[in-house]
């Protein structure tokens, strides 16, 4: 029986392949498929429904229903049994369709006489393209063999749709990857860019979904799987010992690669007439359907592993490596599902923007994107399946919108926006060298954040007075092994050279939480943001801290040096870290190395506890820098990686500003220099409010200095302070509305 079913399936696919090879319109091909499928499945009806837009299905071809209904019958996603299949991506198989949940009668189709209904999704690796349906007058549930056979046909339909075999008149038959698409995501980094798509991992295209010789395809599959298994074994052997996360991923790879059931399902697909490549992709699509709906986050994470493994197998089978031979376009905008910091840095500053299908605001990629000063949009659903290399793309990082293949009106509007950016930049350049003195005569100091050598040219171009934060962890994150002391010393020396005497605040290694070194033994923690990170790692592993401190001392080579410890929660931690500096200095003296002309040792205030440290701490520390990003998340108990809560609490919340103001007062009372470092410092409205409560030193990304200075020069922060005080007295939750109203009234 099985062999007979396989034989019939191969015959059907063979006929479909032959029909596809003939000249004809997209509509003719669809009509042929419905006719062939209905005959092969021994049913009165076979229909193909395709999406005309994200929410609407259209009857595009039928054998057995009223032909007048073609391209006229439409239904919303979830409407009727067809819409239910599309929404759920699950098979619907019923002997009595009118009695089935969600049934909707379409009188124009003439389907009232057909009792049995079988609908399967037409999908390609998680992307829904339509629904394939068979119906019969006999009241019967279709067999597992029938379901399987129809799924095979649906798979071929999906591949042929991707290849453009059904292009015709109307929205449902429009060519894929040619129409304008708008995709919304989440802001990772503000900014705007107009350029062309460059795929980090080019899509593997299956051009031969149907095969003649099942035996040959089985041999190709088995050979490819064995090659894949060897490759995975090599990756496991090269893995860094003790790296639990990496080993976990690789062991998942190995589990999938050695899965007998996975291979068996692909072998069954081949037996029914699919090529080896199509069999791999069919099982990949099926896995997407199963795992993406799982409530278990571990299983959903394994979906990424299976995707990667399937793509590796497809590249082996097709010979389509990641190097396609195509050249990167001008003004490239990188598109990827996700990307590591090292891979991103390899592209360098030629990138104009970055769009990720996954990612998070605190990811390594986001950190590097900020360092490269390029717009970043994360969680852009479907971008990797919609975009093709060379497609025109517009990235609006301010609104988290991607315009793929935009029409002329969108391009014109966007270029108007870019022109406004240019004019604004001209204004910012004109004030670049001016001191930041507010309308009321208060002098403020604007500094920039950095993390790469490539950031340093911005120190001169932006008008920053210095580097308020240099993130030293990026040099650790982008490597496969711990950097050597002499390498770090040389880098830090080049940074000081490039600064040309301006102050550079080096923050010691801030790892842990969302910044994990792949070559260090990971710490399995339920809440890493509150766990073993930053200075806690440095004090528990003093060898790393000492090595970095020695590198910094040698890089100074007799010049001024400023060092800052991250995530200090109590005085004793700072004292212990400062003691390590003293030990490093003593060692340098013994070795005869020159000491810094001046050494400042400060701390980042990122935990509420440090705001209440004893006065002795404030007297001992040379300076403090408020780490606004972390401090805000701990103050509001709102994870900044959690999209549900991270925007729930306003930075200009009265409680938060009052807390900051108390820190300002303590620092004034103890004559402790204080600065504010974080995303809020680079937002003009927030910067005005921070200045109003007494924060005179603000550190931000270089691109933000111009807009912030432009507003501060024209604002009376004494009046803004009065507004903040009035909001506090009234019991307002936030000062934003009141401050915005004032600034608008002043026409600022």
Write a compact overview of the structure shown:
This protein is of the alpha/beta class and 748 residues long. The chain folds into four domains: 2-173, Beta-Lactamase; 184-202 and 327-421, Glucose Oxidase, domain 1, CATH 3.50.30.10; 214-318, Enzyme I, Chain A, domain 2, CATH 1.10.274.10; 432-723, TIM Barrel (Alpha-Beta Barrel), CATH 3.20.20.
What is the fold's blueprint, element by element?
Blueprint: H1 2-21, H2 26-41, E1 45-53, E2 56-63, E3 74-76, H3 80-88, E4 92-94, E5 116-124, E6 127-136, H4 144-162, E7 181-184, E8 186-189, E9 192-199, H5 214-238, H6 244-257, H7 260-271, H8 276-292, H9 297-318, E10 332-336, H10 341-347, E11 353-356, H11 364-372, E12 376-378, H12 383-386, E13 392-396, E14 401-404, H13 408-430, E15 436-437, E16 443-450, H14 457-461, E17 467-471, H15 474-477, H16 485-499, E18 504-507, H17 535-540, H18 542-556, E19 561-568, H19 571-591, E20 599-605, H20 608-611, H21 615-620, E21 624-627, H22 628-636, H23 654-669, E22 674-677, H24 684-692, E23 697-700, H25 702-713, H26 717-730, H27 736-745
Parallel strand pairs: 9-10, 10-11, 11-12, 16-17, 16-23, 17-18, 18-19, 19-20, 20-21, 21-22, 22-23
Antiparallel strand pairs: 1-2, 1-6, 2-3, 4-5, 5-6, 7-14, 8-12, 9-13, 13-14, 15-16
Helix pairs in contact: 1-2, 1-4, 5-6, 5-7, 5-9, 6-9, 7-8, 8-9, 13-25, 16-18, 18-19, 24-25, 24-26
């Amino acid at each position: 029986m099985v062999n007979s079913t396989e034989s019939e399936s191969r015959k059907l696919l063979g006929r479909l392949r032959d029909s596809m090879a003939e000249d004809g319109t997209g509509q003719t091909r669809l009509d042929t498929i419905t006719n062939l499928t209905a005959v092969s499945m021994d049913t009165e009806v076979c229909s193909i429904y395709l999406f005309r837009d994200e929410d609407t299905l259209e009857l595009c071809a039928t054998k057995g229903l009223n032909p007048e209904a073609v391209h006229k019958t439409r239904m919303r996603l979830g409407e009727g049994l067809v819409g239910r299949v599309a929404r759920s991506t699950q098979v619907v198989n019923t002997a009595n369709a009118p009695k089935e949940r969600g049934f909707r009668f379409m009188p124009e189709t003439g389907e009232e006489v057909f009792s049995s209904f079988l609908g399967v999704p037409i999908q390609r690796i998680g992307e829904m393209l339509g629904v394939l349906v068979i119906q019969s007058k006999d009241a019967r549930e279709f067999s597992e063999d029938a379901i399987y056979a129809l799924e095979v046909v649906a798979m071929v339909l999906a591949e042929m749709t991707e290849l453009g075999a059904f292009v015709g008149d109307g929205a449902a038959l429009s060519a894929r990857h040619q129409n304008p698409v708008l995709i919304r995501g989440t802001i990772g980094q503000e900014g705007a860019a107009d350029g062309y798509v460059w795929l980090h991992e080019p899509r593997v295209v299956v051009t031969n979904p149907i095969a003649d010789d099942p035996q040959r395809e089985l041999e190709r599959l088995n050979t490819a799987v064995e090659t894949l298994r060897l490759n995975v074994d090599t990756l496991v052997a090269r893995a860094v010992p003790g790296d639990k996360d990496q080993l976990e991923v690789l062991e998942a790879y190995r589990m999938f690669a050695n899965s007998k059931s996975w291979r068996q399902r692909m072998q069954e697909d081949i037996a029914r007439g699919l090529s080896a490549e199509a069999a791999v992709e069919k099982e990949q699509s099926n896995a997407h359907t199963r795992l993406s709906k799982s409530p278990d986050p571990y299983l959903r994470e394994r979906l990424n592993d299976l995707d990667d493994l399937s793509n590796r197998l497809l590249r082996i089978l097709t010979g389509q490596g990641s190097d396609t031979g195509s050249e990167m376009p001008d003004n490239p905008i990188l598109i990827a599902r996700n990307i590591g910091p090292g891979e991103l840095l390899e592209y360098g500053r030629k990138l104009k923007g970055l769009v990720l299908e996954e990612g998070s605001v605190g990811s390594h990629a986001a950190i590097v994107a900020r360092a490269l000063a390029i717009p970043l949009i994360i969680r852009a659903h479907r971008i990797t399946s919609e975009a093709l290399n060379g497609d025109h793309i517009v990235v609006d990082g301010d609104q988290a919108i991607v315009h793929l293949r935009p029409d002329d009106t969108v391009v014109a509007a966007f270029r108007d926006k870019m022109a406004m950016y240019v004019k604004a930049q001209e204004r910012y350049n004109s004030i670049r060298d001016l001191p930041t003195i507010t309308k009321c005569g208060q002098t403020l100091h604007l500094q920039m954040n950095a993390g790469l050598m490539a950031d340093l040219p911005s120190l001169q171009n932006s008008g920053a007075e210095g580097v308020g934060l240099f993130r030293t962890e990026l040099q650790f994150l982008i490597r496969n092994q711990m950097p050597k002391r002499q390498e770090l010393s040389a880098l830090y020396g080049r940074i000081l050279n490039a600064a040309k005497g301006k102050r550079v605040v080096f923050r010691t290694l801030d790892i842990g939480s969302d910044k994990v070194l792949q070559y260090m033994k990971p710490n399995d923690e339920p809440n890493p943001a509150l766990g073993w990170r930053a200075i806690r790692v440095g004090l528990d592993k003093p060898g790393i801290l000492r090595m970095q401190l020695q590198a910094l001392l040698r890089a100074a080579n007799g010049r001024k040096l400023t060092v800052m410890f991250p995530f200090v929660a109590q005085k004793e931690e700072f004292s212990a870290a400062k003691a390590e500096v003293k030990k490093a200095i003593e060692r340098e003296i013994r070795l005869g190395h020159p000491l810094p002309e001046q050494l400042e040792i400060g701390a980042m205030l990122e935990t509420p506890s440090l705001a209440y440290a004893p006065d002795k701490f404030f007297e001992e520390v040379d300076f403090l820098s408020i780490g606004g990003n972390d401090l805000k998340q701990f103050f509001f108990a709102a994870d900044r990686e959690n999209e549900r809560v991270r925007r729930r609490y306003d930075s200009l919340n009265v409680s938060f500003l009052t807390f900051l103001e108390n820190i300002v007062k303590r620092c004034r009372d103890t004559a402790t220099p204080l600065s504010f470092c974080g995303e809020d410092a680079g937002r003009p409205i927030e910067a005005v409010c921070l200045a109003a409560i007494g924060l005179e030193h603000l550190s931000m990304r270089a691109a933000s200095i111009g807009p912030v200075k432009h507003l501060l020069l024209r604002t009376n922060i004494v009046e803004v302070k009065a507004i903040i005080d009035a909001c506090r007295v009234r019991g307002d939750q936030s000062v934003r509305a009141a401050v915005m109203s004032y600034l608008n009234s002043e026409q600022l």
